[in-house]
């Protein structure tokens, strides 16, 4: 179960690193614009906001990686904290921006958190 938990945490970290790249570096290019269906002008106007969001996603990814490499109890605590942050951000994003965020962010975070807690 611990291997499954580590794999799920790593996948959530990879997802958030991908979001960092998308929001910080690809926002005004085809991948970023198609992600939200923005035209070039809307992507240009929202790029600073997207970059800020991307940075926060990078912090989530870094925290999850820290949780994977740190020994317990620090590693476990970091995983639980950052996965909880992922879930809260996903629920808030789903409520305020797009319902898809619930399934793309909060659900993977919740599955990883459940696996982490069950593995201990």
Describe the structure.
87% of the residues lie in helices and 0% in strands. The protein has five helices and no strands. With 120 residues, the chain is mainly α. The mean pLDDT is 96. α1 runs antiparallel to α3 (40-69) and α4 runs antiparallel to α5. The chain has helices at 2-25, 30-36, 40-69, 74-96, 100-119.
Distance between the termini: 9 Å
- Classify the beta-strand content into a percent band: under 5%
Total of DSSP H or I helical runs spanning 4+ residues:
5
Give the mean pLDDT: 96
The global form is elongated
How would you characterize the largest beta sheet? none
Structural classification:
mainly alpha
CA radius of gyration is 15 Å
Low-confidence stretches: none
Helix content: over 70%
* N-to-C order of helices and strands: HHHHH
The tally of strands reads 0
Compose a concise summary of this entry.
With 120 residues, the chain is an all-alpha fold. The protein has five helices and no strands.
Layout of helices and strands, plus pairs?
Blueprint: H1 2-25, H2 30-36, H3 40-69, H4 74-96, H5 100-119
Task: Give me some keywords for this one.
5 helices, single chain, 87% helix, 120 residues, elongated, mainly alpha
């Amino acid at each position: 179960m611990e291997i499954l938990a580590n794999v799920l945490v790593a996948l959530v970290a990879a997802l958030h690193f991908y979001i960092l790249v998308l929001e910080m570096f690809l926002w005004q290019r085809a991948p970023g614009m198609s992600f939200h269906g923005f035209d070039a002008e809307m992507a240009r106007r929202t790029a600073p906001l997207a970059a800020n969001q991307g940075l926060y996603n990078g912090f989530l990814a870094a925290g999850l990686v820290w949780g994977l490499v740190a020994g317990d109890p620090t590693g476990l605590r970091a995983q639980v904290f950052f996965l909880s942050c992922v879930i809260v951000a996903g629920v808030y994003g789903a409520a305020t921006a797009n319902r898809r965020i619930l399934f793309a962010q909060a659900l993977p975070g919740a599955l990883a958190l459940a696996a982490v807690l069950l593995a201990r």
